[in-house]
Write a structure and sequence with these properties.
The complex is a heterodimer of chains A (about 110) and B (about 110). Chain A has about 110 residues and is mostly beta strands. Chain A has strands at about 5, 10-15, 20-25, 30-35, 45-50, 55, 60-65, 70-75, 85-90, 100, 105-110. In chain A, a hairpin with a 4-residue loop joins β7 and β8. Chain A starts with a strand and ends with a strand. In chain B, about 0% of the residues lie in helices and about 50% in strands. Chain B has no helices and eleven strands. Classes of the chains: A mainly beta (about 110), B mainly beta (about 110).
């Protein structure tokens, strides 16, 4: 299967910017999803990129380069409530079965 | 509109027992997937159902089975429970079966096997 790599943990201060990288093998994924998961809760959808480039949604932006097997999620103007795990995931078959990375734990400090 | 619902929220079982987890998708969604998430890892795909047919199965033993009902709700069954089956079991639904469609997750069932 595909390997999806994300950093394990990132720490940043309130109001700062953090970029979470996600790399994967270049074949097999039709786009890339990002989900946010607070401790003990279900993942919630943040973004989906199917084409190369940057998609902006308020304080969150996501970027995809299919040829490089690379995506990132950019969190701007960090708030304490942004402390969570961020999961990147790719659909691996025609039915949209998702393969997830292990998640990046973002810790926002005052 | 109600989101994906799952029951029960928590469950404690002992080794060797059997468990049934339930999921109701978002109204109008015909695809349901099940994932297992152990602490510190991302969700692992178990099954996908669309229009009551199994459309995908992950790398899980035959002790795991599932089905989808005419109203698109779904059940996940796990037999002969092992300690390693302790995890958060997530159900996700989406409208159809396309790869670009977003899956929406329920709150999960936390299973503890003693």
């Amino acid at each position: 299967g595909q390997n999806i790599d994300q950093p394990t943990e990132m720490t940043a201060t309130e109001g700062a910017i953090v970029q979470i990288n996600c790399t994967y093998q270049t074949s097999g994924f039709n786009g890339l999803f990002w989900y946010q998961q607070h401790a003990g809760e279900a993942p919630t959808f943040l973004s989906y990129n199917v084409l190369d480039g940057l998609e902006e949604k308020g304080r969150f932006s996501s970027f995809l380069s299919r040829s490089k097997g690379y995506s990132y999620l950019l969190l701007k103007e960090l708030q304490m409530k942004d402390s969570a795990s961020y999961l990147c995931a790719g659909p691996t078959d025609s039915w949209g079965k998702l393969q997830f990375g292990a998640g990046t734990q973002v810790v926002v400090t005052p | 509109d109600a989101g994906v619902t799952q029951s029960p929220t928590h469950l404690i079982k002992t080794r060797g027992q059997q468990v049934t987890l339930r999921c109701s998708p978002i109204s109008g969604h015909k695809s349901v997937s099940w994932y297992q998430q152990v602490l510190g890892q991302g969700p692992q795909f178990i099954f996908q159902y669309y229009e009551k047919e199994e459309r995908g199965r992950g790398n899980f033993p035959d002790r795991f089975s599932a089905r989808q009902f005419p109203n698109y709700s779904s059940e996940l069954n796990v037999n002969a429970l092992l300690l390693g089956d302790s995890a958060l079991y997530l159900c996700a639904s989406k409208l159809g079966h396309g790869t670009q469609e977003t899956q929406y997750f329920g709150p999960g069932t936390r299973l503890l096997v003693l």
